[in-house]
Write a structure and sequence with these properties.
This protein is an alpha/beta fold. The protein has a single domain (about 5-320), classed as Alpha/Beta hydrolase fold, catalytic domain (Rossmann fold, 3-Layer(aba) Sandwich), CATH 3.40.50. About 40% of the residues lie in helices and about 15% in strands. The protein has 13 helices and nine strands. The protein has a nine-stranded mixed sheet, with helices on both faces. Strand 2 and strand 3 form a beta hairpin. Helix 1 (about 5-20) packs antiparallel against helix 13 (about 305-320) and helix 4 (about 125-135) crosses helix 5. The protein is globular and about 50 Å long. GO terms for molecular function: hydrolase activity. One of its GO terms (cellular component) is membrane. This is Pimeloyl-ACP methyl ester carboxylesterase.
């Protein structure tokens, strides 16, 4: 590690300790012709760069970035039916303000392209290529991957195809790493059927029920309304394709990964059993399981202060390794 980077990390350690107690960027990988970044300032005064890039199969991916490009990096990967907006509390968290943070909408979600073909979502390599495109376009040097729910599968798909040499660490948040029925709850298994229904009324009800199942501490009425809009934007083909994937077990991938893994899991998760995270903990020697006693499927949202503190500590440690 160069002297300047060591000095930067040392300074960052002090900032993280205090938290606990708009630069320009031109995409280069699979760049869309009109996808120049736009810099906006949100209601909290934080400058963010929005961008759009193309993945290897031409799928347009929408995302945003904030923070010093020289800072330790975090790439947030959201879950099924969600979007990059899921990480709003982390983007505004004082404990994470010193990091370079990038998030994007997965294919079929948010503002990204939404193919109507299930084949666009059944191939793990396509999910992997999306992450690779974002990393290259955002010029991320050695990010920590944060994968929530489906995002954990996507992170694993990336490691499976591209390896973990360029990844500082992985934070799996109530992540799906093995599609075994015994590791997903009965409620989650039921959603795989009704969420892909071609009957609009059935699918609409399932979307609302699925969103509610993501929380032990329910969001406010206004927050739920906004989340429902995002959930309703997700292409039906996403569910259809993902449940038919031939890549169902990524545990060997995480076992082979040599970097650190932080496992974050809400004990009241109604969709992914804690056993899913416990299995990764058992096979990966450099991993830690952190259980959130007041959270369901979304501990980063339900207990954001603790989550931000733990993630900041993990990212700093991963960059010292």
């Amino acid at each position: 590690m160069q002297h300047s980077r060591r000095a930067f990390l040392s300074g960052m350690a002090g900032l993280v300790g205090l938290a606990i107690g708009a630069t320009s960027w031109v995409p280069q990988a699979y760049a869309a012709p009109a996808a120049t970044p736009e810099i906006a300032v949100n209601e909290k005064g934080i400058a963010r760069e929005t961008f759009a890039i193309r993945s290897s199969d031409g799928t347009m991916l929408a995302g945003e970035a904030q923070g010093d490009p020289e800072a330790p990096e975090i790439l947030f990967i959201h879950g099924l039916r969600q979007s990059r907006l899921s990480w709003g509390k982390q983007l505004a968290d004082p404990a994470l303000k010193g990091f370079r943070i990038v998030s994007f909408d997965l294919r079929g979600h948010g503002d990204s392209d939404k193919s109507t073909s299930p084949d666009a979502y059944s191939d793990a390599d396509k999910w992997a290529d999306d992450v690779a495109a974002v990393i290259k376009a955002a010029k991320l040097r050695r990010p920590v991957l944060v994968g929530w729910s489906l995002g954990g599968y996507v992170a694993g798909a990336y490691l499976r195809k591209y390896g973990g040499e360029g990844i500082a660490g992985v934070n799996l948040v109530d992540a799906v790493t093995n599609l075994s029925g015994g590791l997903l709850t009965e409620e989650a298994m039921a959603f795989t059927g009704i969420a892909t229904s071609h009957d609009l009324a059935t699918r609409t009800a399932a979307t609302a029920d699925f969103l509610a199942a993501c929380f032990h501490q329910q969001p406010t009425e206004l927050e739920m309304k906004r989340m429902l809009v995002v959930n309703g934007m997700t292409a039906r083909a996403v569910n259809e394709g993902f449940v038919s994937t031939k890549t169902t077990d990524l545990e060997p991938v995480f076992k082979a990964y040599t970097g650190p893994i932080l496992l974050t899991h809400g004990v009241h998760d109604r969709l992914v059993r804690v056993a899913m995270s416990e299995r990764i903990k058992a096979i990966h020697p450099n991993s830690r399981l952190s259980l959130f006693s007041e959270s369901g499927h979304s501990p980063f949202y339900e207990e954001p202060v603790r989550y931000g503190r733990e993630l900041a500590e993990f990212v700093m440690g991963a960059n010292r390794d």
